[in-house]
Amino acid sequence: MDSNITMETERLFHRRFTDDDLERLVEMRSTMDTARYLGGEIAMTRDWISDRLKYYMSVYPTGIGMNAMFWKETNEMIGWSGIQPLGKTGEIEVGYGMIKEYWQRGIGYETAKGWLDFGFREKGLERIVAVAHPDNTGSWRIMEKLGMKFEKRDFHYDMEVVFYGISRDEFLNAPGGQA
Predict the structure, then answer these.
(1) Which of 75, 81, 97, 156 is the most buried (most CB within 10 A)?
(2) How many Å apart are CA 84 and CA 72, to the nearest integer?
(3) How many other CB atoms are there within 10 angstroms of residue 52's CB atom?
């Protein structure tokens, strides 16, 4: 695997963000289709996205973090995904987002499964959580397909969310072989 690639799946590869990715990240996150479940209009501003990119990069020394996501077939950056701390909760979350042209192709599931596997196998995490806007049924269905269990409604990213979690043992011992 290329030394810049942090995680790879069948159709995707991921690498850490750099400052040079800001323009593409702004372009990807500045549509209401993308932002409506990620914090709304405030999350579409260049300043907000720039701060978010700085946060992503600040997490990298821990060995995890949100990454740029690329479609292997074209080498196009189509979104972001990874595992990172969920605010100050002490939890590690899996998250992802992508441009609309790539929705409903199983990419959310593929990337989230890859990051769960990475987190549990490579990083030895005991638990990973995920949150989504309650209206984002696509995301919480992916969580359920991955074996994550609904735990509660909570408040993160300045919005109400559904909160799911899965343990290392639940993921690695799932019927059908997440492993």
Answers:
(1) 81
(2) 23
(3) 19
